[in-house]
Design a protein that fits this description.
The complex is a heterodimer of chains A (302) and B (349).
Chain A (H helix, E strand, L loop, with lengths): L2 H10 L9 H16 L6 H10 L2 H11 L3 H10 L1 H11 L4 H14 L2 E3 L2 E3 L11 H19 L26 H17 L3 H12 L4 H8 L3 H25 L5 H15 L4 H28 L3
Antiparallel strand pairs in A: 1-2
Helix pairs in contact in A: 4-5, 6-7, 6-8, 7-8, 9-12, 9-13, 9-14, 10-12, 11-12
Chain B lengths: L1 H15 L13 H8 L5 H11 L3 H12 L8 H25 L7 H6 L34 H39 L20 H4 L2 H16 L7 E2 L6 E4 L3 E5 L7 E5 L5 E8 L2 E6 L4 E4 L6 E2 L8 E6 L5 E5 L4 E4 L7 E3 L2
Antiparallel strand pairs in B: 1-2, 2-3, 3-4, 5-6, 6-7, 7-8, 9-10, 10-11, 11-12
Helix pairs in contact in B: 5-7, 5-9, 7-9
Classes of the chains: A mainly alpha (302), B alpha+beta (349).
Chain lengths: 302, 349
């Protein structure tokens, strides 16, 4: 990195506050640009724009903590650790994420050494986000992966207390399992057919129960747009499901109605996971079948 | 039929979109997720990340956990501008909500106009279960300041006509509530109870319109309008017995049984923001807010979620007991329930 640029960024980051060696800071900047620009050639202007967009003060603090600067570490503990624990408690009020945050805290300090040098997790901070955002993201990642490893994740979301559907009020139709299976299959296929952004909004809203504001922040949209698009996607899914039930399963209007009713009747009382798995398999088969057809069509000479 | 089907599909989606979380080489790392959240990804990178996350349960779970762990105080620039441009027509609705719900803050309305809201008493929060008490070293998120007396005085003349109109409307609404409550009591014995709600005690109807004194209404309305936008940052929801009250704090809904001296966390919030509420009896509270979310308790501590059939923001809520409530949505429509939120029906405005 050019000395002038390095000096300018060093000063902008106020890295001298932590007596951070210039080469440590420039190495961190270069690692950051390598990751963000994915090795593609960039002009000086592009590089300057990128470096100036970074959270340079946070990056300098992270570099100083990584090399064990005592004052920097004290500053981090004072300013960031409480927020880490608050975030962990909000993620998992039962204390599971607090354990993750405590383990992360140790790794940030750098308990492991390689070639006599402490290996701190701070070296993975590149300044693209604020340090606070990165820490929350790390806690979220580690908490999710810990649950994933212990195979508890699938049981977690149902703690949300979502109102169960109403119990059945009429006699059980012997065709109901068939309707439920068909319904699950077409629903999974309809979701798979959505555009990524639509599917993302849907997953954030229904599976992760994020608020419209949180989704809007993520997608860079207006809250009202998120709300409108969610409603539009829901309508599109319903229409797609209705069409697939009629076209793929040759159900009459009355049978389509039964399909919807069966879904409502079953949700509160039957093992949804079982039905969902059946639906997913059927949907996956359908998607595979369609992609096979598409591939075979694309191979045909035009 | 379409609405029923939409409702069924909504419930199904909650289950369908939750799959097994599998880590793949394409999964986003924490640094990339953080950069995404802070808007630092280029369009091409964002598109790639979005495409993956939209189909990856593990990454979606990470997003969800991140969102839960992020303070609610951060809002998008877009949403702030939303408040600005629709504030002009929200104001009458919010004023209506304030007039109707003023009875709940009457014991403190003078203080509300002059003193800044107190930050959550972290040390007094006794969370259900472990790890809820915050470390003493933590600084609570500063609460927004209450409107100044000067702001309130300037707003007063403009609000007076509106208050009279809203008071008349509140009278009509209360009459409807009385009628509905009477009808509900007749039908109560035949209705099955929601497990978390037992039969509510007969509660006195709120004296909304009669209790509004114009000299204190303007600042209180301004405070409530502000609190409605800010997730109940300022106002407590006070029951007819002022010792019993609720508030929405940083972590969730808190309850006080000693007039606000100590607070206990009774419900962790992880969903749409709550912006309005009402308490018609000592142990009964209705809370409502964004995206049609409605919560009700009749034991003071156990809340049941009884959302509106559509995800629309709610501007106000009034209730006569744990069974009967009326909500007004931000587009002016009114919905009523007579069965503790099991069903909602639209009523003429």
């Amino acid at each position: 990195m050019e000395a002038r640029r390095a000096e300018r960024l060093y000063n902008k980051a106020d890295a001298g506050r932590w007596k951070l060696p210039v080469e440590v800071f420039t190495n961190a900047l270069e690692r950051s640009s390598e990751k963000a620009l994915a090795g593609r050639a960039s002009t000086d202007t592009e590089l300057d724009r990128y470096y100036d967009s970074l959270h340079l003060q946070d990056l300098a603090l992270a570099c100083a903590c990584a090399i064990g600067h005592e004052e920097a570490w004290d500053h981090f503990v004072r300013e960031f650790r409480p927020a880490m624990y608050r975030s962990a408690d909000a993620i998992d009020p039962t204390g599971g994420a607090r354990d993750v945050a405590q383990a992360l805290y140790a790794e940030l300090f750098g308990l492991r050494e390689r070639d006599g040098i402490r290996q701190s997790v701070f070296r993975y901070f590149h300044g693209r986000s604020s340090l606070a955002t990165w820490l929350r993201s790390l806690i979220a990642q580690r908490w999710v992966d810990r649950h994933r490893e212990t195979k508890h994740l699938s049981s977690l979301p149902d703690e949300s207390g979502a109102a169960p559907l109403r119990a059945p009020t009429r006699a059980i139709d012997p065709d109901r399992p068939r309707y439920v299976a068909a319904m699950r299959a077409v629903l999974a296929a309809a979701i798979a057919a959505l555009a990524p952004r639509d599917r993302l909004r849907l997953a954030c809203y229904y599976a992760q129960e994020m608020t419209l504001a949180q989704i809007a922040k993520l997608t860079g949209e207006h809250e009202a747009t998120v709300s409108r698009q969610l409603a539009k996607t829901r309508r599109a899914i319903r229409q797609d499901v209705e069409q697939r039930l009629a076209a793929d399963h040759h159900f009459s209007a009355a049978q389509v109605e039964e399909c919807f009713a069966s879904l409502m009747d079953d949700a509160g009382n039957l093992d949804l996971g079982e039905w969902l798995d059946a639906g997913r398999s059927a949907a996956a088969q359908e998607v595979r079948k369609k992609s096979d057809v598409a591939r075979s069509m694309s191979r045909e000479p035009s | 039929v379409s609405k029923d089907r939409d409702r069924i599909l909504e419930e199904a989606l909650k289950h369908e979109l939750r799959g097994e979380a599998v880590l793949t080489p394409q999964c986003v790392d924490a640094e990339t997720l953080a950069a995404w959240q802070d808007g630092a990804l280029e369009a091409a990178q964002m598109s790639t990340v979005e495409a993956h996350v939209s189909s990856c349960t593990r990454c979606q779970a990470m997003l969800g956990a991140f969102a839960r762990g992020t303070p609610d105080t951060q809002s998008t620039a877009g949403s702030q501008s939303t408040v600005r441009w629709w504030r002009w027509w929200l104001a009458p609705i919010a004023a209506g909500a304030a007039a109707v719900t003023l009875w709940m803050v009457v014991p403190e309305q003078q203080e509300l106009a002059t003193r800044p809201p107190q930050p959550p008493a972290a040390a007094a929060i006794e969370a259900p279960g472990a790890a809820q008490t915050k470390p003493a070293s933590e600084t609570p998120v500063p609460a927004p300041a209450a409107p100044s007396a000067r702001d309130a005085n300037t707003a007063r003349p403009a609000n007076q006509e509106r208050q009279r109109a809203e008071a008349r409307r509140a009278d009509r609404e209360q009459q409807e509530l009385k009628d509905a409550a009477a009808a509900t009591q007749q039908a109560a014995s035949s209705l099955p109870e929601r497990p978390s709600l037992s039969a509510p005690p007969a509660a006195p109807l709120p004296q909304a319109a009669a209790g509004v004194r114009e000299e204190v209404a303007a600042p209180a309305i301004a405070a409530l309008q502000k609190s409605a936008r800010q997730n109940f940052a300022a106002a407590d929801i006070v029951s007819p017995n002022p010792a019993s009250r609720w508030r929405v704090a940083e972590l969730g809904v808190e309850r006080s049984e000693d007039g606000g001296r100590t607070w206990t966390l009774v419900l962790l919030l992880d969903g749409p923001a709550l912006t309005v509420g009402t308490s018609p009896a000592r142990t009964v509270a209705w809370l409502a807010g964004r995206s049609g979310v409605v919560l009700v308790t009749n034991d003071g501590a156990t809340f049941a979620r009884v959302d509106l059939p559509e995800a629309i923001d709610i501007a106000s809520i009034t209730a006569s007991d744990a069974r009967t409530a009326i909500v007004v949505t931000v587009d002016g429509r009114r919905f009523q329930t007579n069965d503790s939120g099991r069903t909602w029906r639209r009523i003429p405005a």
